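[audit] Reproducing an earlier prediction to check determinism. Same input, same settings, fresh worker. If the tokens differ from the archived copy the diff job will pick it up downstream; this log only records the rerun itself.
[audit] input (179 residues):
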Amino acid sequence: MKKVLYILGELTDDDIEWMLANSRRQSLTPGETLIEEGGTVSALYIVLDGALSVSIHAQTGGEIAHLDAGEMVGEMSFLEERPPSATVRASREAIVLAIPRTRLAEKLKEDSAFASRFYKALAVFMSYRLRSMDRMLGYGGDGQSPVPAGDDELDDNLLGNVYQAGTRFDQMMKRLLGR
């Protein structure tokens, strides 16, 4: 599931308006680097259009993930304030929404309600991703899934949020890309 749906589903319309007012659209050409492994990340990015390739040079240098519209990039470095563990490049022309790290950090510090919603959204996404990785890797090396059958389904509250988030993302796309 697209990361941005977790974020937009938890935030309010006013929160999203703040994000749009305090961000910038950034165009990338094929091969252009957005985030460099071991470097610094100056923004939290939402992929609006195009595709990005994620690679880890320290391991294989090959692509480990492919990101399309609706994905978020740079959230791990934002949370941990550590250098990114991967390089992210445009695999074809792409447009991202860049929310400057400093502005977002200020907003989180001064608006506790926004901070609560934002961090909850990231926690829910990280939990979902961890459960998915557990299932993919097996639990304890015995090949047994740590998640009982059916537990990977989204609960009703999250489903409602995801539907609302999809609508919000579509509205963002129309405003920012004229679609």
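[audit] rerun output stored. Observation attached for the diff report: The CA atoms of residues 105 and 111 lie 10 Å apart.
[audit] end
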